[in-house]
Amino acid sequence: MSLAVVGSVALDTVDTPAGKNEEGLGGAATFASIAASNYTDVSLVGVVGTDFPPEHIQLLESKGIDLDGLERAEGKTFRWTGHYHDDINLRDTLDTQLNVFEHFHPKLPEAARNADYLFLGNIHPALQMEVLEQSSSKFVALDTMNLWIDITKDDLLKVLGKIDALIINDEEVFELTGERNLVKGARLIQKMGPRIVAPKKGEHGCLLFVDDRVFSAPALPMEQVADPTGAGDTFAGGFMGYIAHQGATDFETLRRAVIHGSVLASFTCEKFGVDRLAEVGQKEIEARYAEFVELASF
Ligand code: AMP
């Protein structure tokens, strides 16, 4: 089974208490694709500019990611700049330059159109809908952000009515539903469409609502977090990659998928950008999965 991933491919500049990383490879689709490539065939759909460094293309290709859907447009690549506070859970976006992303309309090549699984990364919900209309996938997960909840809620509600799973921050659950209680908020979102809602709680793990059932996944207690940028997208990529590999979406599979997502996200946080995520292999993933099992059993 294969997975199509749609979203931003970026050059990220971040500073955190651990240091600074200038114009590193980033973007939601990048983190999600690399994470998912540990489990399944991935087709990435996005856009970069003519300034996009060839070594980043080589890295994505070295992971076996199909880049037929990665458009190379005239102009500059999307750029994002973020600053993390001493409390690394707090982040300010300092700058967003849409550049080639501004006029982007995703065009799915055949492999992406026919992928059984689809992850719609955080882009304008009208674009997410354009992708859905081209796709014949049987299971769709979506990520979004406060910006779209604020300014394009109607478009977001339309697309929510057509997807299977929403991966979202706890704060965004509140913004979308007006409900501070995560359980009530998730139940309200299920009524908007997705039968699966996975609210992430940052360093406190993740909940998973599936129909009328719920699972609580821990996050790995980490002594040192270098850069949490992309952890959410990595989580989504690990989650969807595992599901695509299993070819199933029953509750047990989804529970394990949440742990796989959390495993990959914990690696992302260890170094800047994709540096750590890109170097992990099966052995390390399995070892960390075992740590999570140990952490969650009593
Ligand atoms: P996260 O840390 O999971 O929120 O994801 C951060 C990633 O999202 C970075 O690599 C950014 O390049 C990307 N990003 C930030 N803002 C946007 C945006 N408005 N649209 C698409 N991608 C974005």
Task: Kindly describe this structure.
- 39% of the residues lie in helices and 26% in strands.
- The mean pLDDT is 97.
- The protein has helices at residues 28-36, 54-62, 110-114, 125-134, 146-151, 153-160, 170-177, 182-192, 231-246, 251-268, 282-296, and strands at residues 2-6, 10-16, 19-26, 41-48, 66-72, 79-84, 91-97, 117-120, 139-143, 165-169, 196-200, 206-210, 213-217.
- The strands form two sheets. A nine-stranded mixed β-sheet has the order 5-4-1-8-9-10-11-12-13, sandwiched between helices.
- Helix 9 runs antiparallel to helix 10.
- The protein has a single domain, classed as UDP-N-acetylmuramoyl-L-alanine:D-glutamate ligase.
- The two termini are 34 Å apart.
- It contains eleven helices and 13 strands.
- It is globular, with a radius of gyration of 17 Å.
- It has 298 residues and is of the alpha/beta class.
Which class in CATH terms? Alpha Beta
Which small-molecule species are bound to the chains here? adenosine monophosphate
Number of strands: 13
Question: What name does CATH use for the topology?
Answer: UDP-N-acetylmuramoyl-L-alanine:D-glutamate ligase
Total number of helical segments? 11
- Rg (C-alpha, Å): 17 Å
Brief description of this entry?
The chain has 11 helices and 13 strands. With 298 residues, the chain is of the alpha/beta class. The strands form 2 sheets. The protein has a 9-stranded mixed β-sheet with strand order 5-4-1-8-9-10-11-12-13, sandwiched between helices. The chain has a 4-stranded mixed β-sheet with strand order 3-2-6-7.
